[in-house]
Design goal:
The radius of gyration is 26 Å and the shape is elongated. It is α+β, with helices and mostly antiparallel strands. Among the domains are: 30-161, Rossmann fold; 187-259, ACT domain (Alpha-Beta Plaits), CATH 3.30.70.260. 40% of the residues lie in helices and 20% in strands. Residues 34-120 form the ABC transporter domain.
């Protein structure tokens, strides 16, 4: 027998204000439509309507005059190279083209607030670059803003002024890209590839001898990864001199020493969260109870 867990939902008790317009007295939010552009994670499109029809409908909803709508639609279609598909039904578009259309609908009308949920998923690299440039152009040196949700760290680095990283539903850090790198990535990443797997243990011992504070992150057959605190790696010239000696003495295939990237910061936070989740599972002081259904009372 299966049981259903559910929670009651209540209407918000406080008004929502967007661009100076309050939801009080306007429960449908009609007055705020033109202030908000939204690109959902899943394509919210009408399968039988064409690309042109989608753009015209959204332009009308956002209050664009006919002449302004034609100019805006033409610019978007040309930017994303969808002119040949302008009169094609959405159901015949490829995933990448559908995603481009969703983004175009969100930015149409020059809304001051953009909510973009995984907007570039399924796009080709050229389309992604075009979208990033359009976001930057839309909000640069203005009072406009965009909230971008993405799993692509390259996208966050290309578009965002500030980044918030969430791991397992928990907000772990907020700040500029450089701030997060300097605060959470205060280390170098050393990667080694050993030709002979039998020498992996010897290489590991040598690395710990040369860099006493080195922390091994991964070991996969002949591939070793370490985190080196900055104090252990500086001066860099000396660090590279040591690594060249290791490469020669232990016949390494290759090695690299690089600064911690945003992607590596996220990986580290994810690993910390996994450890935290294991600790929570082992905590026997917590008690969980199933929410009862009203019909069971």
């Amino acid at each position: 027998m299966s049981q259903v867990k559910y929670w009651d939902c209540w209407d918000p008790v406080a008004p929502v204000e967007l661009a100076g317009c309050s939801s009080v007295g306007d429960p449908q939010g009609d007055s705020t439509v033109r202030f908000l552009g939204y690109c959902p994670q899943e394509d919210a499109l009408w399968p039988s309507l064409t690309v042109r029809q989608h753009l015209e409908v959204f332009a009308a909803v956002k209050g664009l005059r006919d002449a302004d709508a034609v100019v805006a639609i033409t610019r978007l279609v040309d930017t994303f190279k969808l002119r040949e598909q302008l009169d094609a039904p959405v159901q015949k578009l490829r995933a990448g083209a559908s995603r481009k259309l969703c983004f175009m609908l969100s930015i149409l009308g020059n809304a001051p607030v953009l909510l973009l949920d995984e907007p570039s998923t399924g796009m080709d690299p050229v389309g992604q670059q075009q979208m990033w440039q359009m976001i930057q152009t839309a909000i640069k040196n203005t009072e406009k803003g965009a909230l971008l949700i993405t799993h692509h760290l390259a996208e966050a680095e290309a578009v965002c002024d500030r980044v918030a990283i969430m791991v397992s539903g928990r907000l772990r850090c907020v700040g500029s890209i450089q701030h997060l790198k300097s605060r959470l990535g205060q280390a170098y990443v050393l990667e080694l590839k050993v030709r002979e797997t039998a020498r992996v243990a010897l290489v590991h011992a040598e690395i710990l001898k040369l860099f006493p504070q080195a922390m091994r992150q991964e070991r996969n057959s002949s591939f070793l990864t370490y985190k080196l605190p900055m104090a252990d790696a500086h001066p860099l010239a000396q660090a590279f001199h040591k690594l060249e000696a290791v490469k020669h003495n232990f016949d390494l295939e290759e090695y690299s020493l690089s600064q911690c990237t945003l992607e590596k910061v996220l990986v580290e936070l994810s690993k910390e969260q996994e450890v935290g989740n294991l600790d929570e599972e082992a905590d026997t002081t917590k008690r969980w109870r199933l929410l009862s259904h009203p019909d069971d009372a």
